[in-house]
Design a protein that fits this description.
By secondary structure, the protein is mostly helical. The chain is 38% helix and 0% strand.
């Protein structure tokens, strides 16, 4: 009988008392997803003018990028076979793990004039290592001859 009276007293009480015990969120347009939405009307004039404005902005950027990329000089030099002595080419892993000297000097010929600054990138394939640990130990000496 006490459970009946408790439920009836809670139902007959004011709404602030029931809201405190309720798990339902407070009613608002945001929680009910009733906010007004932006619904633009896509007329042909609006679409064409937007397309023209975007093209006027990005076509010159593309042309500038195209001209800038034509000054890039890229030289790819694979030295995985040339830096290993001929007798050790059949078993490269044994050569790498062995005690033989592993110094390798490569000469690259650049056929196109390059402006300063010159950036050199080193590419490794099928090698997965944390860059911070790997980059800390890298020491590459580059001699630029004119």
């Amino acid at each position: 009988m006490s459970s009946n009276t408790a439920s009836s007293s809670a139902g007959s009480g004011d709404s602030s008392a029931t809201r405190k015990n309720s798990k339902r969120p407070k009613y608002s347009k945001f929680t009910q997803q009733e906010l007004p939405a932006c619904k633009p009307i896509l007329t042909p004039g609006w679409v064409i003018s937007t397309f023209l404005i975007v093209s006027v902005i990005f076509i010159p950027l593309g042309v500038i990028s195209l001209f800038a990329s034509q000054d890039v000089v890229e030289i790819v030099d694979r030295y995985d076979n040339d830096c290993i002595p001929a007798p050790a080419r059949t078993n490269k892993v044994a050569f790498i793990q062995g005690d033989a000297p592993k110094a390798c000097n490569r000469t690259l010929t650049v056929t196109k004039r390059m402006k300063q600054p010159i950036y050199v990138y080193y590419q490794l394939e099928n090698f997965y290592q944390n860059h911070r640990r790997c980059g800390f130990f890298m020491d590459i000496k580059i001699d630029i001859m004119e």
